[in-house]
Amino acid sequence: MTKTAPAAPGPSGPPVENVIFSIKMFCAAMIAYWIALRFNLDRPYWAVGTVFLVSHPLSGASTSKGVYRVIGTVVGGLVSLAAVPMMIQSPEMLTIFVALWCGFCLFISLLDRTPRSYAFMLSGYTVALTGFSVVHDPMQSFGYVVSRVEEICIGVICAAVINRVLFPRHVGPILESRVNGWLDNTAQLIANSLEGKTDPELLASERRRLAADAVDMRQFTTHIAYDTSHHRDLIRSSRALQQHMVLLLPMLSALEAQRAALVAAGGETPRLDALLADLTRWVRQPDKPADAETVRLRQEAADIESSHADAVGWTDLMTLNLARRLGELISLWENCWVLRNVIAARPEPESRVAAAIARAGRPRILRDYGMAFQAGLCTTLTVLVANTIWIASGWENAVYGAQLAGVMTSILAFMDDPVPALRQMAQWIVVAMAAAFAFDYLILPFVDSFWGVMAALGLYFIPFGVLMVNPKTFVIGLTMCVNMPFMAALQSTLSPHLVTTLDSNIATILAILLAIVMTALIRSIGAEASARRLLHMAWQRIARHASGQTNALPEHLALQLVDILGLLAPRMAMAMGAADIASADLVRDMRVVMNVARLKEARQALSADQSRLVADVLEATAQFYRRRRWGAMPEQVIRAVDRGLAEPAGSYPEAVARDVRSALAGIRLGLAPRDMPLPETVPLHLSPPQTAKLA
Q1: How far is the C-alpha of 487 from the C-alpha of 508, rounded, in Å?
Q2: How far apart are CA 349 and CA 364, in angstroms?
Q3: What is the DSSP letter of 693?
Q4: Pairwise pLDDT comparison (269 vs 596), residue with the higher score
Q5: 557 pLDDT exceeds 70?
Q6: What is the model's pTM?
């Protein structure tokens, strides 16, 4: 019976390291098998399978997966002990309860979106595995649940100890390497943006890739707490760095647009050009820039901003906005270097580290309630159908199908379309069946010692264990290593029964086919539909923010939009044929969010009459994002912005006039089509009206 729970494998190292990892897994599995046999536990194969489920090339990740597996098993076992005896006389009620429990736990698991979600998912289908197994003999419930918990704990402990004692591979060095590569790529992206020489499509692709890396980094840092290196105490620093990096995305997009608009309007000055050149060299430095140089550049950006404090024309507004963004860029990049040094164990003043972490705040992730509900519903209905077949047919071994149906629809629920992966797993499960059959009937009869059994198993597990390290073959390796011990029913004595074996294998195959059919009917969607759904969710969040329906901080909303962008990136790559998806740019939308927030903050200082135009802009922006999924265009927003910019200089209080005009200009640059000319109605103090194309 399969219990695979695919998770991203660790970074694939050299072939020798991959073989060492496979040998470590095999050693842990055999130690767990031996312990289970010594204590006469009923199902030693649970301990063996658990080792392969929780093992990971990184020592800390193995521990974290093991902890979550134990928690999920214990919770599921307790629920079984509480529910099964009460409903044992009513199979229909028991079936409905187990189906609903599996669906509910999967729903919560998909909302969590961290490695600990495994505990929620496992607590769901553990009830199916334990509850249905004792339905004919409820008096065995306690012993069955305790046995499962014991054997899983043995597997977890063996995997964790072996991974930490034999050639441990810590998260810390991998984290440091990833951070260095991430920041080096970002530095190049910043330099290209400052120079204005990179192709816009290439920049957009690089930003999507960076967002996807940010999502992956957040998952990766979850394992740091379980590592034994000095990096285990750096969770906050790692997550703060990840948030600083993603906040750079809208900032770089704004810099590109503002500089392009300024060049088109002929507003560049030697002083601004010199600052951009100095910043480009500053960002490209291989080591942390000197504090004196950082202070000088920040002061130069502040001086340029101050010299355009009374800006009302496009040239001045673009210069002011560009200088302000450059100052923010300097602060963000300096914090990135501080956090990079902390992760690399290089000294930094405590005050600067604390300030960098405080600025990041708490991470914000997307919770896709619709997808989670759909996946939970699929699991619930699949378990109901499988149990109906079991009860109606009276087929005793159909219990394997009832148990497996919930497992198969849960383990790949994080995918948009799990059907191809389920088909691949089904093929390799059949191969695992054949391997288990050969082991039981062709090898074990001729082996008379534990060492002989171990040698025979090593010829199987070690090669397939190597496949688990490579992401491309991870599912194959995991499916073969986890399922074979269960199908061979590794126990203390050799007692194969051909009819029972074939009967249970047939039930397993039918359960997999049922899971494939139910998944295809209920929740299988393509990359294009998934990408479009994510875009719509992002636009609805922006609409609520602009209309004042949510009090979320703009930084938090921007982080959530980056999270969506990270999820969107691989789907966009697979759905490039859809014009609406290919043309979407969530980074530009993040710029709009930031400027909407500045406009809402400045609005508090305006009178009712003065805030009328600002309110029109906010309402038009909210309406545009509400209707964007149906192809709405931003002309209404742009007209409202142009009316606000055309107001005389004295229309707004002096304290907020610059912020209002700066935010309005930022919204226009974020929403206007690239070929739309700048308005000629903006009053210019220093130069006549000009028309230029937006970047």
Answers
A1: 10
A2: 27
A3: B
A4: 596
A5: yes
A6: 0.77
Q: What is the DSSP string of 68-120?
A: HHHHHHHHHHHHHHHHHHHHTT-HHHHHHHHHHHHHHHHHHHHHH-STTHHHH
Closest CA relative to residue 499, chosen from 397, 362, 574, 424: 397
Dihedral sign (CA 215, 409, 470, 65): positive
Question: Token digits for 329?
Answer: 């860029």
657-684: b or e for each residue (b if 16 or more CB lie within 10 Å)? bbbbbbbbbbbbbbbbeeeeebbeebeb
- Per residue in 267-297, pLDDT (tens digit) is 778 888 889 889 989 988 888 888 888 889 9
| Residue 380, pLDDT score | 93
Residue 339's nearest CA partner among 434, 438, 248 is 248
Q: Which of 14, 19, 28 is nearest to 477 (CA)?
A: 19
Instruction: Report the chain's terminal Cα–Cα distance, integer Å.
Output: 57
Contact call for residues 243 and 362 (beta carbons, < 8 A):
no
- 3-state helix, strand, coil split of the chain in percent (to 5) is 75, 0, 25
127-183 confidence digits (pLDDT tens): 888 877 776 677 777 888 888 888 988 998 898 889 888 888 777 677 778 888 888
| Residues with Cβ within 8 Å of residue 320, at least 6 apart in sequence | 305, 308, 309, 311, 658, 662
Mean pLDDT, the chain, as a whole number? Answer: 79
CA distance 480 to 468: 10
DSSP code per residue over 466-492: HHTTSTTTHHHHHHHHHHHHHHHT--S
Per-residue pLDDT for 661 more than 60?
Answer: yes
